[in-house]
Structures are given as C-alpha cells and as structure tokens.
Design goal:
alpha+beta; Chitinase A, domain 3; 18 helices; 3-stranded antiparallel beta sheet; 3 domains
Length: 430
C-alpha cells in the first residue's frame, strides 16, 4: 500500500510539472508521440502491478515498450483501421477520468503551500510519537454533532455509543479502539487533530474522505531524545510529507463541498442490491473453487440482471444522475483496499463521476494536457486493434513475434527520441 502511494505521488509530480510542449515529448514515432503523461501513468501502473523497483534499466525498458506500441498504432492508422465500439467505450471512460485528474491538478496540485520551520519541527516531533486512540464514526455531520454534545456532559458513554453505532464486531466490543498508531498511520485530517490532543481529550467531529469521526486520545509514547542533526537531515523529507498531507486535506475539503452542494438523494435499497451483485461477480471471476460449469451459469445470470438494471438511477442530484451503468463503469478504475466497505466503494465511484462532470463544466476537456492524454489512450487502443487484425483476433502473442513486427515497422517509420527529457522527469523529482 505504501509503495503504491509513493508511486502515485511520482505520477502527481509529473502531472504538476509546467506544461512545456518540447519537454512533454519523449519520442516522435512517425506521426505519434510518446509523452511524459503517458510514460508517468503507464510506468507507475507497471511498478504497482509487478512490484518491481524503479531503476534506470526499468525506465528505459518501459520507454522502448511505449515506442513499440506507437509503431503499432502508427501502422493501424496507415492501414486505416478503426476502434471498435468496446474500445471507443473505454476511450470515453479514460477521457472522463482525465477530466477529473486535471480538476485535481487545477484545484489542489497547482496551489502553492507554504510550510514554516515551526510546522516542520512539530511534525518531526510527531514522527517520534505513537498514540493510542478510540474513535466513533458517522456518515453525516448531524449525527456526529449530536453525539459530540452528548459526550461533553457524559464522556463515560463513549464505549456504549461505540457498541451501538459500529457494525464491525471488533469496534463494538472494544469501544472503537484503534490501537497504538505511529505517525503517518492515520488519515491526515484525523492525524492533524489527534496527535495534538491532550490525554483523554475528546475531539470535535472531524471530516475525512470517508465520513465524520470523533477521536478520544487514551495515551501516547514519545521518543524524548531528539537530534538536531537528524532533524536537519530529514527537514526536506518532512516538508514534502507536510505538503502531501495538506494536499489531501484540501482535496477532501474540496470534494466534500462539491458533494454537499449537489443535494444527493440515494436509492439505498437498489445500491445494496447492485453492490452485492457486482461484488459477487468479481468474487466468482477470481474464485477457483467454483466449478467452471456452475460459475458460467451464475455469471451469465448476474451479468443479465445487471444489464437489465443498467438504466436505473442509484443516485440523483441537482444537475444529474448516477446510473447502475455508471457504477459498473466506475468501479473498474478503483483499487479498493482490503476489507473496504462496499458503501465506501460506491461513494468513491459516485464522487469520481461528479468530479469528472465538474471538470467538463469548467471546460477542462479542451486543456492541452487532457487532449494529449486522450491521444495517448487512443494510440494504446489502436495498437491493440492493429495486433488483433494482424493475428485474426489472437491475444496470446509471443514476445519474440512482437519484437519482429516492431523491428520491421522501424524500417519504414521515422523515430526521434529525447532521452534527456526522460532523464529530466526523474532528476527534477529528487
């Protein structure tokens, strides 16, 4: 999980770089381009999926892989091949995701965050601290505020409230106990409050990306010996950590306000039924214990049922609706954490659609970085179309054959590479 977070931060860094057209181009392959946006996203995904460590060797190998795909997409255009309906659908889904990414950049990453010396020292001290918390969780602010008022005069009711509000048995029986948590283990919204609380203090309701929380600090352990030399050596790292945490807090605030302004109405029953069907579908597809014949029949029924429901709204808001089909489309772009509640996953898919719509309303679809990324995505699908056409739909193509095809295309396709631009992406990130 931590590794994934670091890699995504690298991606965000790339996307936040100043838009300089010459620096954005890593290679020209005929009429196609390998861009820094395409490299950052695909290379990040590769490291996440393979768990490989970033290295100069892996960067160069991935760079060559992208050049090869551009050779295939250029060949597709040369042969006047077209995207099929499924590829066009996936291209559309990519395009709305790019709108959301650009909105995030405009509202969060593009904002300068000032960090002073005192704040860095505070976080350095927190990095030497572990805290023991209990917590309460609520889906809305009104419930959280009501319970907080009750706790002001009756703090001894904390455990009883946890028992009646949590569905998870471990939180019910433990009074919402989170255990001992080091620095960086909490949501930044909660950490900012919790690590600064006094012992046995109960916090005001705090909003995170998941909902509303009330913290109770039971105890803390501090490493009393601090070293000035160590602080100075880690100063820049801590500053970057603070900026990342601040960006997440700003992002949560921005998203929460947009969602609040939409006056969203949910169909809870339909959401429950559809979510159950989707997760059953996902589980069946990956469960090797279910017989193939049995799995096939169940999958067929589930897919049919979902298709019949695809036009129904799961949520309605001031200027739009969120259909079952939107849920199915959106869930494939999520990477749910283990044991993440289905309701949270639903909320994230709904949130993503609304943010994409907001990006479209702001005209971000015409932004150069968005159009560039859409072109990159189209090239990726064109590459697949070319190979599918060449091998009559066969998908299991040997690596050696792909290399031979690429080599033959190189002889008729002008290629210009800019390896210094690739190096700059990483040297600037140090």
């Amino acid at each position: 999980m931590h590794n994934r977070y670091i890699i995504l931060l690298f991606l965000f860094f790339i996307l936040s770089c100043e838009n300089k057209p010459n620096n954005d181009v890593l290679a020209n392959v005929g009429s196609r381009k390998v861009t820094s946006f395409e490299f950052a996203e695909s290379y990040s995904n590769k490291l996440i999926k393979t768990q490989l460590q970033d290295s100069e060797f892996e960067r160069n190998r991935h760079f060559e892989f992208l050049i090869r795909n551009k050779l295939f997409s250029e060949a597709a255009l040369r042969n006047q091949l077209q995207l099929d309906s499924l590829a066009q659908r996936y291209l559309f889904l990519d395009s709305i995701r790019f709108l959301r990414d650009e909105l995030y950049y405009e509202e969060i990453l593009n904002q300068e965050i000032e960090v002073d010396e005192d704040e860095i020292r505070t976080h350095y001290i927190w990095s030497k601290r572990e805290c023991h918390f209990k917590h309460l969780f609520f889906n809305n602010k009104n419930d959280a505020d009501s319970i907080y008022i009750l706790l002001l005069s009756n703090p001894e009711k904390f455990d009883s409230i946890a028992f009646h509000t949590f569905s998870e048995e471990k939180f019910k029986q433990s009074g919402g106990d989170l255990g001992w948590l080091p620095y960086n283990a909490l949501d930044p919204n909660l950490e900012k409050i919790g690590f600064d609380m006094a012992l046995d203090e109960i916090s005001l309701p705090v909003q995170s990306s998941f909902g509303w929380h009330i913290l109770r600090k039971l105890n803390e352990k501090n490493q009393m010996i601090t070293d000035e030399a160590e602080f100075q050596n880690n100063k820049n790292r801590i500053r970057n950590t603070i900026i990342q945490k601040s960006q997440q807090i700003q992002s949560d605030q921005f998203v929460n306000q947009i969602m609040l302004d939409k006056n969203i109405l949910l169909d809870d029953r339909l959401i429950e039924d559809v979510t159950k069907a989707i997760f059953q579908l996902i589980q069946l597809r990956t469960d090797d214990k279910v017989l193939i014949e049995q799995k096939s029949e169940i999958l067929k029924d589930l897919i049919t049922n979902l298709r019949d429901l695809s036009h129904l709204p799961l949520a309605q808001y001031d200027d739009g609706s969120f259909l079952v089909q939107d849920y199915i489309d959106g869930i494939q772009f999520l990477a749910p954490q283990k044991n993440q509640p289905p309701k949270t996953i639903f909320y994230h898919t709904l949130r993503n659609k609304i943010l994409s719509e907001e990006g479209g309303k702001r005209g971000l679809g015409n932004h150069p970085s968005v159009t560039l990324k859409i072109q990159d995505s189209r090239d990726r699908f064109l590459s697949q179309v070319f190979l599918s056409n060449l091998y009559d739909g066969e998908t299991n193509i040997q690596k050696e054959d792909l290399t031979k095809i690429a080599d033959s295309l190189r002889s008729i396709t002008p290629i210009t590479t800019y390896p210094e631009h690739l190096d700059q992406l990483f040297t600037s990130n140090k």
